[in-house]
Design a protein that fits this description.
Rossmann fold, alpha/beta, four-stranded parallel sheet, single chain, binds iron/sulfur cluster, 3 domains, binds 1,3-dihydroxyacetonephosphate, globular
Length: 304
């Protein structure tokens, strides 16, 4: 009872601050349920980037990891971008540094650079184009050359290589949350729920993707379960996604592929959202020269 009252009070407080500040809240599909519930928009990385461009507001509060807030800042230089938890960083994005990428570009001078949106602004600025898990094959196939350096996720690179004839040169990065979902975990969960369909994110290992019924982005999974005739699903991605799945499909059952599918960086508390709107900080800033270059790579992706 105490918890419910607290959530109602803080929710009202945030709603009032949003009006006062002409602010909107964007939350990634992995975010805590109560944060998704107060958001004006929830979606996958691509949808958040697109929505941020179109929305009419002075302040965008991005409830996701650092690269999502940075992408919003890159695409919206005239809006204030707040990232309530400055330290909510994507560990995979940190696996690629600008200097090492520059070296790789020298090693493969004819290759285009495709960077997953899970990268820093500096890495995007060194890239020809960005991609997300929803459009990686489309992006790669839109390029002219035959060689592509793909950063930072080796698993998404592998998944993409199955949908193109181009040579993909992968970076050796991975998402700790998805990469440590093993084939054994998934087989065990399948044995417990033999009638369930298996949906996995392309950040999972190749052998996990191999046995899945569907491999797609977080929003791709949401769309799929809505229209599927099936009643049970094993979800091979961060467990936060199940919140929206259950809301949208009250008559269907969802099982996490493993109880360890949690991305700690994605769990922003309501208190931090309230504090951020109250104090109008932390503001995300990207150095102008980097921003312009990174914007080119993001805009090129959005036009594909
Ligand atoms: P989506 O683009 O599918 O939402 O994935 C983002 C992400 O961080 C996956 O781990
Ligand atoms: Fe990064 Fe993985 Fe968390 Fe997605 S789930 S934000 S890729 S660490």
């Amino acid at each position: 009872m105490k918890d419910n009252t607290f959530t109602e009070d803080i929710t009202d407080y945030i709603e009032n601050l949003k009006k006062e500040r002409n602010a909107v809240i964007l939350a990634h599909n992995y975010q805590r349920g109560e944060v998704q519930d107060i958001a004006d928009f929830t979606g996958d990385s691509l949808e958040l980037a697109r929505w941020a461009v179109d929305v009419d507001a002075d302040i965008l509060v991005v409830c996701g990891v650092d690269f999502m807030a940075e992408s919003a800042a890159i695409l919206n230089p005239d809006k204030i971008i707040l990232h309530p938890e400055k330290e909510a960083k994507c560990p995979m994005a940190m696996m690629v540094s600008p200097s090492k990428l520059e070296k790789m570009k020298e090693d493969y001078p004819n290759a285009s650079v495709v960077s997953y949106v899970n990268t820093s602004a500096e890495v995007k600025a060194l890239s020809d184009i960005c991609c997300t898990s929803a459009n990686s094959a489309k992006v790669v196939n839109s390029l002219e050359g035959d060689e592509v350096i793909f950063v930072p996720d080796k698993n998404l690179a592998h998944w993409t290589s199955r949908h193109t004839t181009k040579k993909i040169i992968p970076w050796d990065g991975y998402c700790p949350t998805h990469h440590f979902l093993t084939l054994k975990d998934v087989i065990n969960t399948k044995n417990e729920h033999p009638d369930a369909e298996l949906l996995v994110h392309p950040e999972c290992r190749p052998e996990v993707c191999e046995i899945a019924d569907v491999v797609t982005s977080t929003s791709g999974m949401l769309r799929y379960v809505k229209k599927s005739e099936k009643k049970e699903f094993i979800i091979g991605t961060e467990i936060g996604l199940i919140h929206k799945m259950m809301l949208e499909n009250p008559n269907k059952r969802f099982y996490p592929a493993s109880e360890y599918l949690i991305c700690p960086s994605m769990k922003i508390p309501l208190e931090s959202v309230a504090k951020s709107l109250e104090e109008i900080e932390p503001i995300v800033e990207v150095e102008e020269d980097v921003r312009k270059k990174a914007m080119k790579a993001l805009e090129r992706m959005l036009s594909v």
